[in-house]
Amino acid sequence: MEDIQQKIHQLVEALNEHSRKYYVEDNPSITDYEYDMLYRQLEELEKEHPEYKLPYSPTQRVGDTTASGFEKVEHDVPMQSLNDVFSFEEVAAFDSRIANALNTSYAYVAELKIDGLSVSLEYENGVFVRGSTRGDGLIGEDITQNLKTINSIPMKLKQPIRIEVRGEVFMPKAEFLRLNKEREENGENLFANPRNAAAGSLRQLDSRITAQRKLDIFVFNIQKIEGVSLKRRSESLKFLADIGFKVNPLSKVCHNIHEAFDAIESFGKIRTQLSYDIDGAVLKVDDLKQREELGTTVKAPKWAAAYKFPPEQQETIVEDIVVQVGRTGVLTPAANLKPVYIAGSKVSRATLHNYDYILQKDIRVGDHVYIQKAGDIIPEVVRVITEKRTGEEKVFVMPDRCPACGGKVVQEPGEVALRCTGIECPAQLARNIIHFASRDAMDIEGMGPAIVEQLLKAKKISSIADIYQLQKQDLLDLEGFAELSSNNLIAAIENSKHNDLYKLLFGLGIRHIGLKASKILALRFKTLDNLAKASKEDLIAIDDVGETMADSLIMFFSQQQNQHEIECLQSAGVNMSLLTEVAQNANITGKTFVLTGTLPTLSRNEATAMIEANGGKVSSSVSKKTDYVVVGEDAGSKLKKAQELGISLITEAELRSLLQN
Questions:
Q1: 575 alpha-carbon distance from chain centroid
Q2: Which segments of 384-480 does DSSP mark as H helices, in order?
Q3: What is the gyration radius of the CA atoms in the chain, in angstroms?
Q4: Which of 273-282, 292-301, 437-446, 580-589 has the lowest mean pLDDT?
């Protein structure tokens, strides 16, 4: 056992060191594959021997999947803000106040002002124990689990010290663009800038979502420390880097105000070249004793100032407004602009987000407008120069038919997005086919996103139903396919024809109709044809089917192109009827179950299928309506809530007993 404990310790230390070299130093010492193999080995050992799991293990970077809320944290050292200045005259006035107060020589440290979210990180004996937001400076929120997902935050320092530091969490520009593109395709509201995106990501109750956002951090201040004495700001930055924190390397010691001016100007020149967003430069007195002498106000220190860069704006003309259709069918307007240079690059197009945005700003074709880059990244229209209007400008109206396929466009209550509802829409085709072939839908093994994109690019398919016309030779024509892989995919496609009705219904991707609703509808209507003919009254009479779902179903089946696609699937031999009736089990039928933790022998999907096959329901959250919570290993917050509500807790073995009876 000691050998296993030692092995776990060695793996944790090695993986943390490799992670630091990769995310902090940007100098990896092993390949990604080698890292993954070590990580998997650690996971397996920790699963077999959870008693040896270390709190700073890299496997702990994603904790409980959900939290009911964030607990308050009182900061021992207030997390103050900085006084902003907006001109070199104001910087000079700040310097004069420093000179008059100190009456001796002094130096500044000039640093980048990262546009992110300020957080506190606490370490005991060198191990990360708690992280919190700034809040109002005195009281913040505990977001430890979310901060653990940020790989550049060390779980364990190089020295076993007690320290609290302050850092700025930010979202890199590339990740911000990727996230907004994904949100646009999904019809979700876009984040205004990287700071807004970072703040939203850090306050997710599900830490797995935070982990997907690829946040980063620069640590910039020691709030408190035990056993170490430091004299200068510049010295403390080096110390932070030496013990394992990621510290921004672009700081400069300035011995007079002229050097400070030069530093601020140099930061401004490289602003657009950085991989992260900055909104200014910060000047801080270097000598820590001089800082104590200068003191602070209630809100901000007197020894620091933040110079804010003005946003660069340019005037141009809206030459046209065009509509793009995203992969989820959302129609997004964009302005084609007379090309103009801004923030270091030529801009000829700006997103207009949605129709409400156009109406609010009263943007018309032919308008003179001011544009800027939100977060120095995304071009956006700031305002219309109405005084330059000639009367020839054209008011824009969103189309009621999809520009990509001619399908009907709908705007659902409470949403700003307009969507195309056509299943054959070419703009949505890749996403629709990927969803259709996915495991919970038609489960066509081997037809993942890359293969779907390859088939579309080679023009082997142009609709969902075309999947069932594929021949082996079509696949052999593609790069990467051989005899065996081609045979396997053709067999998987053929097998999918015999799926139960609910898998086809879910695979059609009807808005608001998820897997659970698909099963309910399949059981009630028995055939797809019966469902297609159902009235709204028939639909809303079913438990768990509301008006929104009913309207969505009726809209889908009324579309001519959707009817055509279903006819093609039927002609190809795809089953459109219920195959499996639900068994009547008095212990299960009508009962609501919640699964939490890892079950000994069953996966979540297997347990769900068994419960539903016996007439039960599986919910993702615990409430007063829950009858049973099935508890596995490493159960999270659902277990705690179930105990608070007095819900019956059962094991996998007890679940099997209920199913057998």
A1: 37
A2: 429-437, 449-457, 472-476
A3: 30
A4: 580-589
Report the alpha-carbon distance of residue 279 to residue 271 in Å, rounded: 9
Category of 347 on φ-ψ map: left (φ > 0), alpha (ψ -120 to 50) or beta? beta
Neighbouring-strand partners of residue 221: 166
CA end-to-end span of the chain, whole Å?
Answer: 42
Neighbouring-strand partners of residue 337: 318
CATH architecture of 429-571: Orthogonal Bundle (1.10)
Q: What is the mean pLDDT of residues 100-125?
A: 95
pLDDT, tens only, 346-403: 889 998 988 999 999 999 999 999 998 866 677 889 899 999 999 999 999 999 899 9
Task: Note the pTM of the prediction, 2 decimals.
Answer: 0.64
pLDDT digits (tens, 9 = 90+) for 157-186: 999 999 999 999 999 999 998 998 888 777
Contact between 169 and 197 under an 8 Å Cβ cutoff? The reply is no
Q: How far apart are CA 72 and CA 78, in angstroms?
A: 14
d(CA 90, CA 43): 55
Which overall architecture, per CATH, does domain 592-660 show? 3-Layer(aba) Sandwich (3.40)
Q: Is the dihedral of CA 331, 192, 135, 162 positive or negative?
A: positive
Q: Which residues are designated catalytic? A: 113
| Spatial contact of 447 and 488, defined as CB atoms under 8 Å apart | no
H or E element at residue 382: strand 378-384
Locate the domains of the chain by residue range.
2-60, 84-308, 314-395, 429-571, 592-660
For residue 406, what are the CA distances in angstroms to 123, 420, 427?
A: 59, 8, 11
Alpha-carbon distance of 417 to 541, in angstroms, equals: 29
CATH value of 314-395 in 2.40.50.140, 2.60.40.10, 3.40.630.30, 4.10.375.10: 2.40.50.140
